[in-house]
Amino acid sequence: MYEIDTSGFFAYIGTIFRFVGGGLSLDPAAFQSAFNDSATFSGIFIWIVLIAGLSLMLGQSVVLFANRVKPARFAVSIFMGALKFLLDVLVYAVVVWGMANVLGAKPWGFIEVARAIALAASPYWLGIFILVPFLGLIWERLIKIYVFLALVVATQTIFGLSFLQAMSGSALVWAISFVVTTAFGRIFTPLTDRLTRLVAGDLEFSSTRQIYEMFARHDQIV
Questions:
Q1: E strands, the chain, where?
Q2: Measured between alpha carbons, how far is 90 from 107 in angstroms, rounded to an integer?
Q3: N or C: lower Cβ tally within 10 Å for the chain?
């Protein structure tokens, strides 16, 4: 059911959607197939993460709308956000792989682990619904819980852990990844701030939370 089929364009697209469906349904077989795929990435899991990042960025694009970002800059900002999301998933995969090799009884291949972790990002395909007024922030939190559960299933499946072991391990990896990305973020803050101003201009509003709080107070935004 989850075999990689790259024989044609539509077969390739169909394979992506089958894996995403498996990720969304938290099907262990999908994560096991992603881990066992012998044809390297075939690009499929990179596309899954990029599309997840694009959907998430579109869901948070109310910030760009509120700041009246021009269409060209809007598109570039969305694409750059998706690339950053890809890097965040890569960091998480590196942390999972590192801990598995330090604590595990046998060596684990990075590419195999990364494929399974990439599939766990599937719930972010629903990130575009963060745009829904008033419900956006709640939806964003629900998606994060959804992704965490997908990560639990992924680690439980590929490493043969119990549910409690996978949950505690995923929580630890999540915390470590947060520290790592935050540390790197602070180091490169001057560069990222400059890049943000270059791409999107000076932003008066900086977060979806700020925008939705203004909606809730019926304040004038634009």
A1: none
A2: 19
A3: C
